[in-house]
Amino acid sequence: MNVFGLYKIRWRALFSGLFILFFHAFAKANEGQLILDSANVAYSKSEYVKAAKLYESIANVGLESAEVYFNLGNAYYKSNNLAFAILNYERAIKLKPDNEDFYFNLKLANQKTEDKIDAAPQFFLKQWKNALVDLMSEGNWSKLLLLLIVVALILIALYFTSAIRGLKQFYFFCGTILFMISIFTFFIAQNKYNRTKNSREAIITSAAITVTGSPSDKGTKLFILHEGTKVAITHEDEAWAEIYIANGNTGWIKKTELQKI
Questions:
Q1: Which of 197, 231, 248 is the last residue of a domain?
Q2: Distance of CA 145 to CAs 52, 132, 142, 153, 194, Å?
Q3: Is residue 85 located within the same domain as residue 130?
Q4: 159, 181, 197 — which closes off a domain?
Q5: Domain limits for position 164
Q6: pLDDT tens, position by position, 146-155
Q7: Is residue 144 scored above 70 in pLDDT?
Q8: CA separation (Å) from 110 to 37, 87, 96, 252?
Q9: pLDDT score for 20
């Protein structure tokens, strides 16, 4: 076989592979849309348990989105499954933290939880930093960073090409300021990415659990938590998770009693 024939076969294999990948992605998206339509119809008919199962199936096949999690949370809320309603509202907020509807529905659900835990006081600078980082999702922070860098580069390019002294100073000053802001934005985007990717938060899904002082049923009983309570996982072993709650208390519970956000 000559070299031309070999290249021809390789190109055919490449295009065939790309076509299969495209067709698979299209079929998957089309299937997801059909399930979404069925879930929306079930929800409109007040068939909330059925709607929840359909929304859940969309997320389970990798077609997750903030809107799907929000609708899933609503379906669970309407079917009186408080823990999973809160879990999915939290997942929606994780993907789109700037949506006020998500926070409003989460607040309604949290008002129905049995555990009312007051958060331990934080240093005000840490509160400000967390509030700033949570203004947008990691994706939106990244888009803002890219925009700032592009505009800064344009201004710097104008500085080198302009022949007017006043404009050169203006372009240099604005470009420098935007470049410094972009560095600041980079660290915010990185912080948001790390918090999102390495999130260790979870929701208690069992009706009521006893938190113990060690990873054992025979451990010292410390306190009781109820469904819907948000916790942070600080350590895990095969079957147990060490948790931290907002007021600073810690203890161990079984992994089967919670779901990670």
A1: 197
A2: 37, 15, 5, 12, 16
A3: no
A4: 197
A5: 124-197
A6: 999 999 999 9
A7: yes
A8: 28, 11, 19, 23
A9: 53
